[in-house]
């Protein structure tokens, strides 16, 4: 981390991010347009599984959500 004029900043070119590490909550998915019923169906069918519970809310890995969207063909029309 570098310091410039009293502010700390991170050089993003030096970061390595793995989609498996990103976490999304159920409420965030709903804000993005996924219906609560769809999320509950995915949970019941083991398409997605909870990663953690934080602030009384279920959280998921974004990679799992992305895979579920592709598998269920959510964004694509045929």
Kindly describe this structure:
The chain is of the alpha+beta class. The protein has a domain at 18-71. The chain contains 3 helices and 5 strands. Strands 3-5-4 form a 3-stranded antiparallel β-sheet. A hairpin with a 2-residue loop joins strand 1 and strand 2. It is elongated and about 50 Å long. The mean pLDDT is 77.
Short overview:
With 78 residues, the protein is of the alpha+beta class.
The helix content is: 25-40%
Query: Over the alpha carbons, how many angstroms does the gyration radius reach?
Result: 17 Å
In round numbers, the mean pLDDT is 77
Shape: elongated
Number of strands: 5
Question: Could you spell the SSE succession in H and E letters?
Answer: EEEHHEEH
Query: What's the story with the biggest beta sheet?
Result: 3 strands, antiparallel
- The span between the termini is 47 Å
Features:
two-stranded antiparallel ribbon, single chain, three-stranded antiparallel β-sheet, 22% strand, 78 residues, 5 strands, alpha+beta
Strands, helices and their partners?
Layout: E1 2-4, E2 7-9, E3 23-25, H1 26-31, H2 36-44, E4 52-54, E5 57-61, H3 62-71
Antiparallel strand pairs: 1-2, 3-5, 4-5
């Amino acid at each position: 981390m570098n310091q410039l004029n009293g502010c700390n900043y991170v050089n993003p070119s030096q970061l390595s991010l793995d989609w498996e590490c990103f976490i999304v909550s159920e409420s965030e998915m709903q804000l993005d347009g996924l219906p609560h019923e769809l999320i509950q169906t995915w949970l019941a069918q083991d398409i997605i599984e909870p990663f953690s519970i934080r602030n009384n809310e279920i959280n998921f890995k974004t990679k799992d959500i992305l895979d579920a969207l592709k598998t269920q063909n959510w964004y694509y029309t045929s």
